[in-house]
Design goal:
Length: about 280
C-alpha cells in the first residue's frame, strides 16, 4: 500500500504525517511500515527535511520510474557504453543512500582487471571511499563521516571539489589478503563481509588510495575515475564512473577520461532538468 502509493508519485516526497493521512492509516502504523521499507532499501528518508521517497532497491529491481536516477542514466547510456569499450573499463552509476553507496546502473562490460559491479550492490560510504559523494555536501550532510574528520580527509575533499572529479588508485594487495577476501566472500554472511570490508578500509591510507597529484607524463594504476551529476538545485543526485581499468593510464589520459565523463554528466543534468520542466511548459 505505502510502496504502491509512492511508486505512482516517483518524483514526490512526503512526511509520515501526510502519508498516514492520505492512506487513512494511523501515524504509528505508517511509521512502522515506512521504517521497514527504508531498512530494506525500498524507500529512503531525506535527513534534511525528513521526507520519504522511493529508495535504491526500486532501481535495483529494475523499476523504470520517470525522473528517478535510473531513468536519468538512460540519457548517458550510449556515451557511457562507448567510453567503457574505449578504455576497457566498466561504466557505473551510483547514488549515496545513508551511509552506503548503491549501484543503480552499469554500462558496458567489466574490464580484464577483475573488478566488477552489479545493480543493487552496496558499498560503505566512508574513507577512503566516497569522497566524490561528500565533497559538495554541507556540514550537516557530512555528519555521516563523524569520526573520520582529519587534515587528510579535508585535503582530499578540497582537491576533489577543485578538480570536479575523483581518481582512485589500485593498491598492491598481498596474495594472502586476496585469498582471505575470496574465502570471506564465499563462506561468510553479509554482516561478516561488511565487518571485514570495514577492517580493510581502516588499513588503507588516503594518500595511497586517492591521486592528489596527477602528472601528465606519469603512469597510474587507476581503479576508478568518477564525476558528480547535479540536479537543477546543484545538489548531487548521482555519480558516473569508469571502474576497473585493465592497464595503467598516463596522467594525460586520466584527464581526458575525466573530461569525457564530465561532459556526459553535464548533458545528463541538462536533460533531466528539461524533463522536470516539461509538464509545466
Amino acid at each position: 500500500m505505502l510502496l504502491e502509493y509512492l511508486a505512482e508519485r516517483p518524483t514526490e516526497g512526503f512526511s509520515i504525517s501526510e502519508l498516514s493521512r492520505r492512506l487513512e492509516i494511523s501515524k504509528a502504523t505508517c511509521h512502522a511500515l515506512a521504517g521497514s521499507l527504508i531498512e530494506a532499501g525500498w524507500l529512503t528518508r531525506d535527513p534534511s527535511n525528513m521526507l520519504v521517497t522511493l529508495g535504491p532497491a526500486v532501481f535495483a529491481a529494475g523499476a523504470r520510474f520517470m525522473k528517478s536516477p535510473r531513468e536519468f542514466t538512460e540519457y548517458a547510456r550510449p556515451e557511457m557504453e562507448f567510453l567503457s569499450a574505449k578504455y576497457a573499463a566498466q561504466g557505473v552509476a551510483t547514488i549515496p543512500v545513508g551511509d552506503e553507496i548503491v549501484v543503480t546502473d552499469t554500462f558496458g562490460s567489466p574490464g580484464t582487471s577483475g573488478i566488477s559491479n552489479h545493480v543493487g550492490q552496496r558499498i560503505p560510504l566512508r574513507p577512503p571511499l566516497g569522497f566524490i559523494y561528500v565533497a559538495w555536501s554541507d556540514e550537516e550532510e557530512r555528519a555521516i563521516w563523524q569520526g573520520y574528520e582529519s587534515e587528510a580527509v579535508a585535503e582530499v575533499l578540497r582537491v576533489v571539489r577543485e578538480r570536479g572529479f575523483s581518481v582512485a588508485l589500485n593498491l598492491d594487495v598481498p596474495p594472502a589478503i586476496e585469498k582471505i577476501i575470496r574465502e570471506v566472500q564465499a563462506t561468510r554472511s553479509p554482516t561478516e563481509i561488511e565487518a571485514f570490508v570495514s577492517s580493510v578500509l581502516d588499513a588503507l591510507r588516503l594518500h595511497e588510495y586517492t591521486a592528489l597529484v596527477i602528472e601528465r607524463d606519469q603512469e597510474y594504476r587507476v581503479r576508478n575515475v568518477s564525476v558528480p551529476v547535479f540536479d537543477s538545485a546543484r545538489r548531487l543526485s548521482l555519480v558516473l564512473s569508469l571502474v576497473g581499468f585493465s592497464r595503467p593510464l598516463s596522467g594525460s589520459t586520466i584527464l581526458t577520461v575525466a573530461n569525457a565523463l564530465t561532459e556526459v554528466a553535464a548533458r545528463v543534468s541538462d536533460l533531466a532538468a528539461a524533463t522536470v520542466r516539461a509538464p509545466t511548459a
